[in-house]
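note to self: the first set is below, dont mix up w the second
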Amino acid sequence: QVQLVESGGGLVQAGGSFRLSCAASGSIFGINAMGWHRQAPGKQRELVATITSGGSTNYENSVKERFTISRDSAKNTVYLKMDSLKPEDTGVYYCRADRIRLGVKNTYWGQGTQVTVSS
């Protein structure tokens, strides 16, 4: 099993910044991609950003040039730097890790951290 623990959420005014962290522990061998998803009230969970073990990144269109995902492999931690936050960025942010072992892929989720952006 892989455990993911997020931190760094809270309340901020529009235009502000946050940095979220997600630390992975447990059976982490084989983790390739990690990422962040978010879920706003009454909406489905959506992808925000992902990063592979090779450093390739992918962003949802609305966060491009405002959010930056990065990864510290030595610390088994992925970060999401969020700048120029907007009220529509409000939601619970979940960390995700994909692990592949012997051809079997498993996806793990953190418990989520609340980000609230006031207008």
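second set (the one i keep forgetting abt)
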Amino acid sequence: VQLQASGGGLVQAGGSLRLSCVASGIIGSIISIYDMGWYRQAPGKQRELVASITNGGSITYVDSVKGRFTCSRDNAKNTVYLQMNNMKPEDTAVYYCKFSVGSRRIYWGQGTQVTVSS
């Protein structure tokens, strides 16, 4: 299984970006059992969960992005998205996607850089 994240870049404060993460190597009918999520890691900081969406569609967000970021998934496309609006300089980080089934089957994307200028 491989995850390919894309959509990162440089944006001004207040702007928007949409991240995508596509999984390959997962049989189409199996993708629906995966939980998916986005994490980020800023320089000198630990990786933190930004948003997650369970296989049942339940979504959680870290408090700092609530009301600004939207996480969604498209099982038919093996893809999870992160729509980021009203972005702030503190959102600057490398963003990683994660697909998982419990604690024994976990896959990470390669990371995509997001930089928000003030």
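remember for set 2: The CA atoms of residues 46 and 84 lie 20 Å apart.
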